[in-house]
């Protein structure tokens, strides 16, 4: 059994029953690639899109997973030492080649980010892709600066919670939405200055607090709420389209002059492993370990509970990040 591993295989797009835990040969890395012993991986909407058949360019059967956290098992070029703690993400993982839903995964070395931490694997597994996306959205997408105001549309998602943490750390005033009134207290406890119930008219609530509108807004729900999010931004404010919790990401018959409020800027963000500087990852982990910031609620599953985890992801049963502990 030494030459095999447990892995989750998605046979074809469809319901959670299409996900099965099977034994596969342990993958061998080619030159320039690295084999990682996976300790934990986070679940992402991208993987739900893959399972539902909404993602383009995916071939089946496929081991899903756009991220993984663990240790270097084998680097045929000897660049990374065995046992080095690493994260990896994106770059075609779980789409054009097998991803992180497995005991081992093989990825290009350039998408491996090293770190050192004594945090539990289930905490470390919650971080990489969510941190990369939140960090890139606030820096590249919004160019957020200290003292500015930020609206997060979809604030109780794992990404929304990390974005709030980073924005507060920067010194921003954060407004954040949830559709569930019972989660307002959780947002406040996470440091959000103005938790808001998303009733479809968030712009009105924002302007009751900030009459000119917010400096920046992060759209994590998708195109159904984007017009209202744009209406919440001030003149010369910026809205960054990053997430698609609604599974809708196109705007039919887009007419820019009629769609965009006067003077409001619309940007978008999608990043890769190279967009998460190692020093940003290390500092974030160190601050979690020091108790200075929190990773937010984390719900941990075993590999053989992957169908339960995907069900919770699809239907929003959990508040925060869903993580699978592999071993």
TrEMBL record:
Residues 14-324 form the Enoyl reductase (ER) domain. One of its GO terms (molecular function) is oxidoreductase activity, acting on NAD(P)H. The keyword DNA damage does not apply. InterPro entries: ADH-like_N, ER, GroES-like_sf, NAD(P)-bd_dom_sf. The keyword Oxidoreductase applies. Keywords: NADP, Oxidoreductase. It comes from the Bacteria. This is NADPH:quinone reductase-like Zn-dependent oxidoreductase.
């Amino acid at each position: 059994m030494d030459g095999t591993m447990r892995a989750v295989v998605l046979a074809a797009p469809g319901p959670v029953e299409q996900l099965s835990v099977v034994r596969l040969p342990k993958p061998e890395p080619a030159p320039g690639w690295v084999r990682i012993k996976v300790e934990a991986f986070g679940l992402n909407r991208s993987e739900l899109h893959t399972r539902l058949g909404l993602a383009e360019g995916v071939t089946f059967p496929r081991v899903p997973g756009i991220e993984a956290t663990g240790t270097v098992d084998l680097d045929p070029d000897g660049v990374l030492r065995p046992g080095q703690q690493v994260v990896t993400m994106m770059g075609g993982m779980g789409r054009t080649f097998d991803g992180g839903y497995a005991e081992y995964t093989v990825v290009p070395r350039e998408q491996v980010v090293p770190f050192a931490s004594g945090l539990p694997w289930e905490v470390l597994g919650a971080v990489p892709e969510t941190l990369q996306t939140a960090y890139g959205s606030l820096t590249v997408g919004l160019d957020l600066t200290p003292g500015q105001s930020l609206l997060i549309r979809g604030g109780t998602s794992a990404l929304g919670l990390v974005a709030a943490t980073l924005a507060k750390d920067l010194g921003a005033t954060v407004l954040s939405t949830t559709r569930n009134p019972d989660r307002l207290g959780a947002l406040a406890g996470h440091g959000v200055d103005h938790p808001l119930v998303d009733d479809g008219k968030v712009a009105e609530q924002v302007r009751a607090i900030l009459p000119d509108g917010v400096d920046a807004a992060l759209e994590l729900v998708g195109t159904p709420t984007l017009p209202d999010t744009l209406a919440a931004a001030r003149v010369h404010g910026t809205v960054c389209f990053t997430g698609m919790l609604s599974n809708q990401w196109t705007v039919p018959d887009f007419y820019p002059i009629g769609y965009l409020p006067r003077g409001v800027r619309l940007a978008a963000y999608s990043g890769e492993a190279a967009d998460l500087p190692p020093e940003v990852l290390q500092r974030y982990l160190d601050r979690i370990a020091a108790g200075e910031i929190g990773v937010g609620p984390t719900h941990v599953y075993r590999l053989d509970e992957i169908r339960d985890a995907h069900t919770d992801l699809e239907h929003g049963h959990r508040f925060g990040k869903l993580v699978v502990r592999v071993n």
